[in-house]
Amino acid sequence: ARPVSQRRSECIFKAVEETKEAGVVYIIDMSGSMACGLEGASRLELVVEQLKDAVDALAEHHRFTVLHFNTSVQYFERRLVNASPGNKLQAIQWISKATPDGMTNISQPLLEVLQSPGIP
Question: 42 with 33: CB under 8 angstroms?
Answer without folding.
Answer: no
